Amino acid sequence: MSKILYIPAAFISATLWIYLLTSWAPAFENLKYPNSLEELREVSEVLKQYQRDHYIYVFILFATAYLYKQTYFNSLTIIIILQNILSGALFGLWKGFLLTCTLTAVGATFCFLLSKHCGKDYVVYYFPERIRFLQQKIKNHEMHLPFLLLFLRCFPMTPNWFLNMASPVVNIPIHLFIMSVFIGLMPYNFICVQTGVILTKIQSLNEVFTPSKLLSLTVIAVIALLPGFVIKKLSIGKC
Description:
By secondary structure, this protein is mostly helical. It has 11 helices and no strands. The chain has helices spanning 6-23, 37-51, 55-72, 77-91, 93-126, 128-140, 145-154, 160-166, 174-184, 186-197, 211-238. The longest helix has 34 residues, at 93-126. The model is unreliable at 234-239 (pLDDT under 50).
């Protein structure tokens, strides 16, 4: 059987598990994954009420749904934002933040592994220019690769979905990949979770990433890249 067929097989299995998990709780009979701020508020209220008596169940449901979306729908930015906001609404700032960072890293790693073992050829086929560009960047920054990866994750315009699929293609070690996702997306995750804590007060998703917040993320990304340039300059000086 072609390896690419493992991806839809895994997707169908995961979808079935999500369906069974939600079916076990009568309170979730008409519950659907939120696609807007208003739907997010409704889902949040339902889960909060159920959470009082079934905390572990809601935790498992949230974590499972998060990994499902992060693995198979990580290109849909709005979904990632909404699930991060929901984390803050359900679990508070610090628990939600740690949970979001962990699940983001785990979900991205699932995507990494699916690409590595089942879809590398297809990633190269459909994104040849992007792959060549990323390979060149890695070659130019080979001696300080961790800083480059952190920069790419912190920079707000970076397509994280592409990095998740392309990383195994350009031979980024999995331990550096996990580190870059967990640490590099911390600022982004914190902003979303913080918004979830005050979910009832925000009127639009535009309030999540204001120009000032995007500028802050850009500054953090540049700071992440600075050590690499310093190391490179020192290495040249020693030569």
